[in-house]
Amino acid sequence: MIEVGDSPVGVSTGGRPLATDQPLLVFVHGAGLDRTIWQLQTRYFAAHGFSVFAVDLPGHGRTPGPAPASIAAGAAWLVEVVAAAGFDTAHVVGHSMGGLMALELAATHPTRVASLTLLGVAERMRVHPDLLAAAETDDHLAVELVSSWSLGRPAHRGGHPTPGLWMMGSAVRLLERAAPGTLHAGLAACDAYQGAADAAAAVQCATLLLLGELDLMTKPRAAEPLAATLADATVVVVPGAGHLLMVENPDVVIDTLAQFLVPVA
Amino acid sequence: MADTEGLGFDTLSLHAGQQPDGDHGARAVPIYQTTSYVFPDVDYAAGLFNLERQGHIYSRISNPTVAVFEERMAALEGGVAAVAAASGQAALFLAVATLLDSGHHIVSSSSVYGGTHNLFTHTLPRVAGITTTFVDPRDRDAFRAALRPETRLVFGETLGNPGLEIMDVPAIAHVAHEAGVPLMIDNTFATPYLFRPLDHGADIVHHSATKFLGGHGVAIGGCVVDGGTFDWDASGRFPTLTEPYASYHGLRFTEEFGTQAFAMRARVEGLRDFGAAMAPQTAFYLLQGIESLPVRMQRHVANTRAVVEFLDQAAEVAWVSYPELESHPDHDRAAVLLPHGSGAIFSFGIRGGRVAGKAFIERLSVFSHLANVGDAKSLVIHPGSTTHATLSDEELAVAGISDDLVRLSIGLEDPDDLIADLAQALRASQR
Hints:
By secondary structure, chain A is an alpha/beta fold. Chain B has 431 residues and is of the alpha/beta class. In chain B, α3 packs parallel to α13 and α14 runs parallel beside α18.
């Protein structure tokens, strides 16, 4: 169990305890989701030489409290979590809103971040006004829109490698579990954040950009300004995947991330 | 604005769970008739066993053809995942054994399939120390009163067997959730085309796929669908999902797999250890049926309505029990929960009791006399002497099975032929 102050932090450690003599790998989820979105990646890297935790951001999963009001607030909280876990540095992997927080973290605390991996991000992550409005009133429409737009067209038909797993239903249910207001807070934080370009310019570590070819929420071309600004960026576009690429194509995400991390770790 | 819920029900019936075959372009779901799968390398193999990679290891635990069936069922029911089993009974046992330990307790509707009644009444107490209290499916307070500290599951059927009591799923789900336990619904009679229990508060859906899902009467199979709705952590009553599992190096299913915890444990423990797996050939047969489920269910319901209307007017018939009739106690609930029809199975009472019933059944020629329901062909049976024969007189009375009760499962034949067959057999029954 990790605690920040007196408040518990929900994490999955991939089935193995944290060990401070191993490099730390931290996974950060997107708006309205939780740690379990990384279920295969956490278990893989925990079995391959890393101490791993996928964290529940405040207000998500098992971590109590209101959702971070801004990308900067989320990044500051992540710094505290890494320290509370007993580590000085971490390889940080973030998805969507979690990716922006990871980017901000790497920019503001360069000595804390050994490497940075961003999935499904863009320089500006404006959110459709209809979606923001639905999320603000906790209208179930917001859950349906995010689920539908997050999965690439092939994933709408399924065929997931996990036997029997229905991705669309899983996405809907996970978002439904978020406390009232949580999804809206995340989407609003993304919509308001304008610091990605400056943050990218300040990042000093190696960065991997993993983008879904069919992503409707953050189209691959919307990440091009980030890739151009980052000092040491590798861009990989995952064919056939949408915004939830770590769910839609877990093996490619694992293999690409492993290839990236081995030299830097 | 773009579509909000993904593909529609009819499209999912045909496509969910399948990407076109990448190797050969096969349009139909291929039958992967294999016990095992070649690992690309040692590390990947270890990853599959450690649940860090997903794929197939051995067909007792998963198989590509069966996985398409499972994913399609999860999609049609609106769940997060499904696990197939060799039969509906195997799926029911799989679900119970995944959640309950010795000493635990079930509250069940009394109007359930005879096989379910046997499992709950006789077999579970003997082999697992799990007991069941049966209650009137229409009595919400009876469900609440039967709950005990050791209760871990509330169970019922969408449409009771054979009385077609319509489970008040939203109300019973509320009772179960107040007690911190999930509601599992056997949705075999309704199919997800007519009713989706997860949309109304249930947490797990159970099916005998042998019936309407297959529709052809050539394959036995079942499944459970995990709704992903129940908060096992908050309940605190389900250590199989929330506490470390020694068989997987201390894995906590809710911590790692979240909303999919139940389905994951049912597969990696239940199918691994109990072994009641669905065969790939069976999954293929069932998928052929599911492809046409929407159009078949429409015809099943239309034919049933025609037959019910005929029997309701027939002089040889004492009573007809079908929820769309105003005389049925659940008529109003049917209109709310089952607006597209109350299924294609119903019962009626024949004047002259058991003797007349015997003559009636033996005179039918289009209807087949056998122990099944949900076939494309119309079926008939006398439950008191067959499917529910092991129940005592008292249990029969509780289940609403009288001596004159005949159960029909209406198929897809021409409705005029069905009515003509029934008319001549009814006349013969009164001679």
